[in-house]
Fold this protein.
Amino acid sequence: MFEFTVALLIVSGTLMTILSIMAFQRRSSPLVLWLMVVTICAGIWDFGFAVEIISPSLQGKIFWANVQFLGITFLPVAWLAMTMHFTGQPRRSLRIIPALGIIPAITNIVIWSNPYHHLFRGSPYLVTIDLPFPVLNNDYRPFFYAVHAPYGYILFAVSLFLLVRFWKRAPAIYRRQRFILIISLLLPLLLDLLYVLGITPIPAFNFTPVIFSFSGLLIGWSVLYLRILDILPLAYETVISDMDIGVIVIDAPGRVTYLNPAVERITGVSREQAVGTVASQVFPNLEALWDSTGGNTELSISQGGEEHTYQIHRSIITKGEKRMIGQVVTLHDVTERVKLYRQVEEISITDPLTGVFNRRVLTDRCEAEIQRAIRYGRSFSLILLDVDNFKAINDQCGHKSGDDVLRAMVKTIRKRIRANDQIFRFGGDEFVVLLPETSAADAMETAGRIQDGLTNLSVGDEQKKHMAIYVSQGVTSLLPGDTLETLLQRADTALYQAKEAGKKQAVLA
């Protein structure tokens, strides 16, 4: 029993030393560095306990027990730090790690100065009756039970909580890796708890460092076989978690297996609500997120009272050549791009001076109204108008006054037509007004209202002179066989007749 126990401790300590060397060789991330600290602490515990067992004297055993606590006290802190990095906790949470080492540091000071105050141990002694070898009974005092033990168990409990939660959220491919870490933490934690409660096969003997040989084998298998320190899956997880682009992983039956924080922010659905649930139930109103029949689509989502546009991209995950095992859906915020596109589009179809649609849009809208009128047998009219003596206005008052005239005229016309009527700048001082479902007689009435409104309007120049605005108008209505060209040609003829007849009037053609 004596030789076997010492051998197990030496094997466990050796495994921890090997793991610490491997971690040091791969020290490219904080996660690996904290794993190295964990294995160093566990190795100190293992080797220290082996020497404690071998030491024949009480003072020798107490000394090596104190050495062990250099690893024991900092092990929960290192394990929690490793777990926090492994589970991708936010940076603000990681800042607390250095502060967590204060209690272990104080504990070691109390331990090594114990002969002066006996806060950690009372009167330690050797137990030899009915035991295979002398065992140190530490006779722990209040500091051990009130500070050291609860503090360590709290940190281990937080580590276990983070690992279990992380395991539940993990894609299936990574669950085995994370389950190994949970088991390697649970085994020594349970044994240490039994030791503190006094439930051990050998009284006052802590089997926890012995079990580290098995935990070491588990972690070693994870490192060598499951490649738990492989930077690629860790990098993927870190990058995906930090991305502004939303990422959702859906398995073949349509269940959500993963979503990153960006999706939680975009949709308001938490990871706890989504993972394991069918996507159509998680996002019932956002069909583009779970409808695998669609390709790349756009989706509008209201966020904080504002409408955001997201481009939805779907990538199929296959195993082999044909078998689909899932899909990755990404949400890329293209709101600014859509706004910019709309602004550019608006600039391209809008007259910058008056704010009305330009001639390019007139062609499409007028042809659409013609087809609609023909299809439903309804009337349709238009007015072509221009400003009388516009050149004289520019010459006498300046081009700025000419621009003011056009803007004021458009503003007045909009007040004199219906909401479904449309005004377009045809060119220069010429404008076209489309009048859907309007007969020739009604169109002439509209032209009269426009003329009345403009007659009472005047625009001042820089010299405070005033000049009334007058327009000539050519009015026409849709006839059988008409096209956009024939309509505009008739309206232009009527406009010319209005000019010839003395201007300031409307002529129907």
User: Anything to note?
Assistant: The chain has a mean pLDDT of 81. The chain is about 55% helix and 15% strand. The CA atoms of residues 138 and 286 lie 63 Å apart.
